[in-house]
Specification:
With about 240 residues, this protein is an alpha+beta fold. It has helices at about 1-15, 25-40, 105-125, 130-145; strands at about 40-45, 55-60, 60-65, 80-85, 90-100, 150, 155, 165-170, 185-190, 190-195, 200, 210, 215-220, 220-225, 230. One cobalt (II) ion binds near residues 82, 93, 95 and 220.
Length: about 240
């Protein structure tokens, strides 16, 4: 899973410079698929329960599971790129939200706070803690900033399969839920909305959109709980390990 996560990190880093006004998310999708296959891996979202693409590309009020499209990205938008790959039988899953060109201070803050929410969750991802500790940490930080925490989608266990038990909600109560033990591999993936956390699903039966049409950001990594703390597998050299 370390090797899988390392490749996924390289793929996402290579996609980031493409994100500019005028590029289409289909172009980004095609580049992602090429980089994944060149790395000896398979894009695991392609064909997953019928999902047709190698990345999810969710623009502005789209929360998750956006379909890459041939509509060029425009200055001032934000776009979340979420990618899962399988290398030698092991899955890794990571997502980030990027500004497109120049975006409002409001949108920049949403992206920053979403990433901070992820790290708040990571700080609780320690053996002996419980899932509710992670969710609570994420929720506190989001709501303190006046944002909504998406409820309909969660982090998850990951390994041979993309989605395994347990579900890792971005909300919860300290001391509740399953206990974290060394060796558990999971994703933490806050989806944080500027307004309401309520969503609807588009006609494509996949894409979740905020009901108030305000923007949403997403930030995700795959990690393993070790005796020494959380190790982020989809960042270089175990970032996040705290002795
Ligand atoms: N990467 C998503 C997640 O974080 C799952 C995408 S499944 C797909 O769980 F089929 F929509 F790609
Ligand atoms: Co993902
Ligand atoms: Co995920």
């Amino acid at each position: 899973m370390r090797e899988s996560g390392k490749l996924l990190h390289q793929v996402l880093e290579a996609l980031k410079p493409m994100i500019k006004p005028g590029v289409t998310t289909l172009e980004i999708d095609r580049m992602a698929e090429k980089l994944i296959r060149d790395g000896g891996a398979i894009p695991s979202s392609k064909g997953y329960e019928g999902f047709p693409y190698s990345i999810c590309a969710s623009v502005d009020s789209e929360v998750v599971h956006g379909f890459p499209s041939d509509v060029p990205l425009r200055d001032g938008q934000i776009v979340s790129i979420d990618c899962t790959l399988i290398l030698n039988g092991w899955q890794s899953d990571s997502a980030f939200t990027s500004p497109v060109g120049n975006v409002s201070a409001e949108a920049k803050k949403l992206i920053r706070v979403t990433e901070e929410c992820f790290w708040k969750g990571v700080s609780q991802a320690r053996a002996g803690n419980r899932l509710g500790d992670i969710g609570w940490a994420v929720q506190q930080h989001a709501e303190m900033n006046g944002y909504g925490v998406i409820r309909d989608f969660c982090g998850h266990g990951i390994g041979r399969e993309m989605h395994e038990d347990p579900s890792v909600p971005n909300y919860g109560k300290p001391g509740r839920g399953a206990r974290l033990v060394p060796g558990m591999t999971l994703t933490i993936e806050p989806m944080i909305a500027m307004g309401t956390w309520k969503v609807f699903i588009k006609d494509n039966d996949w894409t979740a959109v905020t009901r108030d049409n305000r923007p949403c950001a997403h930030y995700e990594h795959t990690l393993v709980i070790t005796e020494g703390g959380p190790e982020i597998l989809s960042l270089p050299s175990g970032a996040g390990v705290q002795a």
